[in-house]
Fold each of these.
Amino acid sequence: MKPYAIGVDIGGTSVKLGLFSSDGTLMTKWEIPTITDNNGSGILSDVAHSISQTLAERGIGIDQVEGIGFGVPGAVDENNLVLSCVNLGWKNVDITKEMTRSLPGCPRIRSANDANAATLGEVWKGSGTGRSSAVMITLGTGVGGGVVLDGKIIPGTWLCAGEIGHMKVEPGDNTPCNCGKSGCLEQYASAKGIARMARDMLAQCDTPSPLRDMDPFTAKDICSLAQEGDPMALAIVDRCAAYLGLALSYVACTVDPGIFIVGGGMSRAGDVLLDPIRTYYRKNAFLNSDQTPIVAARLGNDAGIYGCACMVLSTQ
Amino acid sequence: MKPYAIGVDIGGTSVKLGLFSSDGTLMTKWEIPTITDNNGSGILSDVAHSISQTLAERGIGIDQVEGIGFGVPGAVDENNLVLSCVNLGWKNVDITKEMTRSLPGCPRIRSANDANAATLGEVWKGSGTGRSSAVMITLGTGVGGGVVLDGKIIPGTWLCAGEIGHMKVEPGDNTPCNCGKSGCLEQYASAKGIARMARDMLAQCDTPSPLRDMDPFTAKDICSLAQEGDPMALAIVDRCAAYLGLALSYVACTVDPGIFIVGGGMSRAGDVLLDPIRTYYRKNAFLNSDQTPIVAARLGNDAGIYGCACMVLSTQ
C-alpha cells in the first residue's frame, strides 16, 4: 500500500477533494468550483490539475498515491463509466480515460454514486465506525441513500440500490415525483417535500402556527418551530418521521443492517426529528431488528471524500 | 474439493436430504420424518444415521464428503448455532457439536435459515442461474424470503434480512400478524392471508362468485377460480398482487437485485398471479429497476437441499 489516497466528491456547484494518508487520516481538504460549461467536459481536467498542484505543494509524487476515488451525483458502473449525470451534463463519461489523459502517472481509479460513497465514508470514519453493515438515508433537496454490507457498497443491478427516497410510502397519492412516478418518500421527507406536505396539512386544518405567517417557509423553519414546541410544526415533523420510520423498516426487512445513519441538511434538526423516526421504526420493524440504532451522520459534507478514499484503501 | 456434498433441509414434518457431486449434480435425494419429541433432541442424530446409511449403501466414505449444509426453519448464526426454532422445539442447538457427536468423521458444517438456503439454491441451479444477485419471496403458509447478493446469502444483523412478509404494506390495518405487529404483507399474500382478505372483500361487496358457496375456501380455490376468469377471484388476486408488487419495489429500492423469484405453494398459480405482480412492480419501481424480471421458482421443494449443498461447495 502506497502512503496516500485521494477522495474526490463531485457536486453540482463544487468539487470537494481530500488527501488522505493510507491509515485513513484526512491530511488536507479543499474545494474547486464545478464548471459545467460544455457538458462539464473540463471538470475532470480541473480535478487533475488541482490534484497535481496540491501534491506538488506538499512534495508528494503521484507515484506515492495508491489511488483516487470519485463520488459522482449519478449512475456510475464498476468500470468507472458515468452513464448519466444530469447535474454535471455528463453522459457516458469514462473517468479512468479522462483522468489518465489529464494526470500523468494517474494511479488506479475507483468510483461510486455520491450517496453510496458518503455511506461508505460514514461507515469507515463516521457514525457507522466498527459496523460491517449500514444503511444511510440523506435528507436534502431530495432523499438519497446508500447501502453498505460487509464493508462494501451495494450499487444494485441497475445502480438503483439505496434509492430509499423513491419507495412509494403513499401509493394512493398522485403528487408527481421527479422520478416520473408518485407517492415517493421524497415527496414527504426531502426539504422540498416536507414543506409541500406542510402546506397541504396547514390548508386542511385550523391549528394556529407561526408557519401561517411565513410564506414561503422552509424545512429548516419547520424543524426550528418543532424544536420550540409549536404543535403544528411537531405534527408535520411527526408525519414526515412516520414515513421515514416506515421506509427504514422496509429496508430492515430486506437487508437488516447494523445501523441506520441519517444525514443531509434536515438531519441537523437532531432528536426532534430522529426520536419520532425511531419510534415509528420500532413500531414497524420485524422482531429483533427493531433494536437497530438510528443515528445522525457525523462527517457532514466530508462523508463523500472519506468514502471515496476508502474505496481506494479498502480491498473492495 | 472432495467429490461429494450433502444438503439437509429440516422442515417441521420431514427432513429432506440430497447427495450432490461437487459439480452440483443431485445424485440422490430422500426424506426422513422429523421427530420433534423431547424438543427435537433426536433430529440431528436421525440425520447423521440416515447420512451414514446412504453413504454406506453407495460405498462412499465420509472422508469423500466436502461438507454438510443445513437449512433450518428459524434463526441460525454464522457459527451454526440455532438460536431458536419453534417448529422443531429447538433453542440454542449447536449443529456442529451435535453432528460431530453423531457422525464419526463429520466434515465441515454450514447452515442457514431455510428460506435463505432455498434462495441460494434457486440462484445456483434454478430460476436465478447465472445471476449474482436475487431476491426470492416464498408464498406459503406464511410469506418468507431470502436475499442473495454477489452469490452470498445476506442473513442480516439480527437474522431478519429477507423477511419481506413482514413489511407493513398496510400500516393502517390492525389485523394482527403472528409477528406481534399488524399490516404485514403476510396478512394479504400468504395462503392464509389471501383467504382472510378474500372473506373481508366478499363481505364488503355483492359481486357474485362461486367462492360464496365454498366455505371454507383456500388460496388454491381463489387462484383456480381466477384462472377460470371469475371476476371476484381476479379482484382478490389483483389486490394480493398489488401488495406484492409494492413490497418488491421496496426491495428494489434497497438492493436492486438482478431477479425476483416467486416460490411457495401459491406460486403454482403461475401467470394469473405473476402478471399482476409484474404490473404493480413496474408501476412502483424506480427508474431502470422496473425492468427486473419476476419469475416463478423452478426447483420446488428441492430448492433447500440445493442451497444447502451450495453453501458447502461455494466459497462463501
Note: The two ends of chain B are 14 Å apart (CA to CA).
Amino acid sequence: MDNFSFHNPTRLHFGKGQIAAVTAEIPENARVLITYGGGSIKRNGTLEQVLAALKKHTVLQFGGIEPNPTYETLMKAVELARKEQIDFLLAVGGGSVIDGTKFIAAAIPFEGDPWQILSERAAVTRAIPAGNVLTLPATGSESNAAAVVTRRETSDKLSFISPEVYPQFAILDPETTYSLPVSQSANGVVDAFVHVMEQYLTVREGAQVQDRYAEGLLLTLIEEGPKVLSQPDNYDVRATIMWTANQALNGLIGRGVAQDWSTHMIGHELTALYGLDHAKTLAIILPSVMDVMRKQKADKILQYGQRIWGISSGSDQERIDAAIEKTRDFFEQMGIKTRLADYGIGADEVVKLIDQLKRHNMIALGEKQNITLELSESILRKAL
Amino acid sequence: MDNFSFHNPTRLHFGKGQIAAVTAEIPENARVLITYGGGSIKRNGTLEQVLAALKKHTVLQFGGIEPNPTYETLMKAVELARKEQIDFLLAVGGGSVIDGTKFIAAAIPFEGDPWQILSERAAVTRAIPAGNVLTLPATGSESNAAAVVTRRETSDKLSFISPEVYPQFAILDPETTYSLPVSQSANGVVDAFVHVMEQYLTVREGAQVQDRYAEGLLLTLIEEGPKVLSQPDNYDVRATIMWTANQALNGLIGRGVAQDWSTHMIGHELTALYGLDHAKTLAIILPSVMDVMRKQKADKILQYGQRIWGISSGSDQERIDAAIEKTRDFFEQMGIKTRLADYGIGADEVVKLIDQLKRHNMIALGEKQNITLELSESILRKAL
C-alpha cells in the first residue's frame, strides 16, 4: 500500500426528507444562489422542498446548466453571482450541475481569466462555499473535490481538482431520483461502475481493504443496477444505488493504490467531439482498455473475474476474455451500447480523437503512465 | 436503509514516515501534552520521532496511562494540563491511550465533576483539541468520537461519545507496530473483527454497501490476521491490519443500519471485575450472543456463514452452528481462548456479572433492545 493522507470534509445527510437539513447547513445571513439544470427539479418537487428549507434565506436562482456543463453557461452564473454578491452556492441536480457549481465557486473570486483553472490548472486558492442536493447518483461529485467542464467553442472537456471546492454538505435523498429518465438512471450505474474500476483494475499491490471495498461496490451495482430500470420507485434500490455511487468516488477506495483514469480521459474526447453521454463513452472505452492493457493488468483482471463474476476455469487469457465480455454484457444489460459503431462513429474518426488527446497532453495515461497515443489509438480501434 | 448523517473530520496520514506530519498538524504556538502508556514508545523509537517532529513546539509529557485507562490516572493528567495551560493533546499509543486522552480533552474545560461525563453522560460541549499517533491497531479510536474509561475504585467501565472529541488528525505508521507483543497484535485483530460484527450481524435490511464493506473487512482480517503473528515485520500485513482496524470503527460501515453492541457491554463487565483484556472478553461473548440470538439474527448469520466461510449446505440451524463454530475457531487460531472457564471464571460468577450489568443499566441491549438481563445471563452461561 502506498502512503496517503485522507480527509473528506463534506457532511452527508442521507435519506427521506433530508432536504430539510439544508436550513441549518447554510448561514442564515448568506446570499444563496441555487444552481440547477434543465428544470426537472421544478417538475418533481425537489426545488419546492429546497425553497421551503430556505424560506428565511435570501435566495436567487440560476438554471440551464447543461449535461457536460459548459464554460460559456457557467461564466454567466459567475457574472450574476459577482453582481449579486452571492456568498453561498447550492447546487440542486446531478454531477453536471455540481461540477459546474464547483467551477462557479472557484471562478467567482479568481483573479485573472477563470479559463486558466481548466486550461492551465491554475491554482485555486479560494472558492465560495457551496453545498448540494443530489438528484442523480453517478459521479460522486457531491462529496469530492473534482469537476469537469466543457468549452463549447473549442471542444475542450477539461477537469480540475482543488480541496477548496469540496462541498460543505451534500443531501442525498433517494426519493428525488424516482422521476429520473431510464437512460439517466442507467448512465449513473455505469458511471459509478467505471469509477470503481478505474481505482481498482490496475496492478495487484496488497491493498486488500481497498480491493474488497471496490469489489463490494461492483457486486452491489451488478445486483441492484438492473432493478433501477425495472423498479424505479423502489426506495431500497434507489437508496443503495445512491450510496454506492457516492462511495465509488469520494476518495476512499482510491487511497494508497494506483489509479488508471485512461477510460475517462479518452471518453471525454468522445463527448467533446460527438456529444455522447459521459457514461456511454466509459462503456465504450473500458472493455477496450482492459483488452489492450491485459498483460499489465492480468493479475487484477483475473481477481476481478473470479471474485465478481465467478470465472475460475480456462487459461489466463480465456479468463481475461471472459471477464471483459462479462463487463461488456453488464453495460449492455443496462441498456448502454458499448461499440463506437453503435453511435455512428467509424474508423475514420480515430485520427481526430487522437489529435484531441494530443492537444490536451493526454500522452501518458494509465497507472504506469504508459498508455501512449499509440496505445490510445489501439484502444479506440478495438472499440469500433 | 435508515436515514443517517455522516461526517468524519479526522485527517488521516497513513504510511511510513508519516509521524513527520505531526509538525504541520499542531499550531506552532501550542502548548502540547504528549500522553502515552507504559513506555514502549520510548523503546521502539516512536517517541523520538514524535519529539523530532515537535522540536519547535513547547512539549510536556504524561506517561503511565494503563490498558483500560483509569479515571484515577487520567485525572492526574487533567490536573497537570490545567496547571500547565496545555492547549493541545497528542496521544501516542493504542486505543487505551487515545480513549484516555479523549476523556482528558473533555475533562480539562468541564465545569463540575468530570466523572459525570461517564456516569451521567453529561453533555460535552467543549474539549481541548487533540491528535494522535497510533501504535496499536484495534479500537478505531484514532478517528472516532468514542472513549471508554474505567474507574478502579468502583469497578465501573463506562463510555462516552461526543463529536467534540473527534481527533483532529491521526497518524497511522504501520512500522510503529512491528514491536508489538504477539498478544496485543492478536487482541487488535479480534477487537476489529468484533467491531465489524457488531455493526453487521443484526437484521437483514437492504444495506448492501454496508454489508459488503463489513464482509470485506472480515475477510481481510481472516486472511491477514494470522500473518501478523507469523510475520510481525511484514509491512504489507501490518499496513493492511492497521487500515482494516481503522475502517472497522470510523463510523462508515455502521451508517444507516441497526447495531448490536451487547458483546462489548457484557464484555466490559468481565474487564471491570476480572481485568481480562478487552479483546478476550469479546472473543468469549460474541459466539454466545450469536447462539442465544440465533433466531433474530438468522438471516444475517446465514449470509455471514455463506459469504465469509463458504457455508452453504445443511439445515439453517446446522449452518448457524457452523458459522458460530468458525467464528470461535478464528479467535482460537489467533491465540485467544473463547470460554470463561479458560480464564478461571466459573458459573458462580454469573450472578455478579448480571448485577454489574443491572447497576450500569444495561438491561435492554442488542439491535432491538431486547437482550434483557435474563438473556444476558443465558449468554454468559453459554460462554462458560
Note: Residues 182-382 of chain A form a domain with the Dehydroquinate synthase-like, alpha domain fold (CATH 1.20.1090.10).
